[in-house]
Design brief:
Length: about 350
């Protein structure tokens, strides 16, 4: 009798915790028909520092982005399409540090990074340091689907974009006055307070990241993740953050979860944050909530890495932890759609 009970327990554990097992009909029943989460960056975002107009503008933009992704998923579209189109909207919105509205480099340019990963094939595409591609997330997808590579940077990435018919714009398209002022502030602070040349020096930081990201689960049980950013204000030397790095800022695999990160990229690269979420869920049997909470609120905090992430697991459960004051974020699944900013 004892042996039979043990066998049943072991079998159940296997079915529910082994990330690579095919989906059972019971698991299918537990899965939401679709699920979507977005972020628009984490950082020093407090009620006190926000005006009602600004709050309304961010809330409306995040809600519109969610509606775009949700409509695709509701109509049977793929997680990958939902992620791409949602991010395109956020890239075109000047409120966020991605596409139009991207932060400025030390030299006063906008250098954009993006990545995307398809959880059903584990194919991925990424671009770094592009300056004239209107929607870097589209280029990341083109790299994934139309090139034999995962990551292209700089001039080569621009050439690939033009060969593949992606929309190119004058570099001025990305300009916003607010981000330009942030750069001037950072340059002033740098002159006064720091002679170290260390970009991680807190005196140089724009205390508000603004990267955008999206994760989605579609009706076929496929997951996808994407992230797009202008990086960090006053970055130099063709610095790349975590956003274009698969495993750091973005990761997706159908057997467990899809993840998109925002925050101080150097830390997310060092601790391979997006992949670490997948690994903890897959190898330890932790829930998405447990895994993401451990990484963001314990591991990153101990190391000094500020930021957050959004993640969706293969059942459509969403986790959105962050260790900064706020994170622009939202989620949608059947019966519920919600946007949040503060803690
Ligand atoms: N993670 C981005 C980077 O380091 C910045 C951000 O999330 O706002 O480039």
């Amino acid at each position: 009798m004892k042996i039979r009970i043990l066998a049943v327990v072991l079998l159940t554990r296997l079915l529910f915790s082994c990330g690579t097992s095919p989906e059972t009909s019971q698991e299918k029943q537990l899965r939401r028909p679709y699920s979507l989460a977005i972020h628009g960056g984490a950082g020093t975002i407090t009620r006190a520092g926000m005006t009602p107009d600004r709050e309304a503008a961010y809330t409306a933009a995040l809600d519109s982005a969610l509606i775009i992704g949700e409509n695709i998923l509701k109509n049977g579209g793929s997680a990958l399409d939902a992620v791409e189109q949602t991010i395109v909207y956020l890239e075109n919105c000047p409120l966020f540090n991605a596409g139009k509205g991207a932060v400025f480099t030390h030299e006063g340019r906008n250098e954009l990074d993006a990545s995307v990963m398809d959880g059903s094939t584990q194919k991925a595409g990424a671009v770094g340091g592009v300056t004239t591609v209107k929607n870097p997330i589209k280029l990341a997808r083109a790299v994934m689907e139309k090139s034999p590579h995962v990551m292209l940077t700089g001039r080569g990435a621009e050439q690939f974009a033009s060969e593949n018919g992606l929309e190119l714009v004058d570099a001025k398209w990305f300009y916003t006055e607010e981000r330009w002022k942030s750069l001037q502030k950072a340059l002033e602070a740098e002159k006064k307070e720091s002679k170290t040349g260390d970009i991680t020096d807190p005196s140089r930081r724009d205390y508000k990241f603004g990267t955008v990201g999206c994760v989605a689960l579609d009706k076929n049980g496929h997951l996808a993740a994407g992230t797009s950013t202008g990086g960090m204000t006053n970055k130099r030397w063709n610095r790349l953050g975590d956003a274009p790095i698969i495993g750091a800022g973005t990761y997706a695999a159908d057997d467990a979860c899809a993840v998109s990160c925002t925050g101080h990229g150097e830390y997310f690269i060092r601790y391979a944050v997006a992949h670490d979420v997948w690994a903890r869920v897959t190898y330890t049997g932790e829930t998405l909530e447990q895994a993401t909470d451990y990484i963001v609120n314990k591991k990153l905090v101990e190391k000094g890495g500020e930021g957050g992430l959004i993640a969706v697991d293969r059942y459509g459960k969403v986790a959105m932890p962050f260790n900064s004051e706020g994170m622009y974020r939202g989620y949608a699944f059947p019966g519920e759609r919600k946007v949040m900013i503060y803690r």
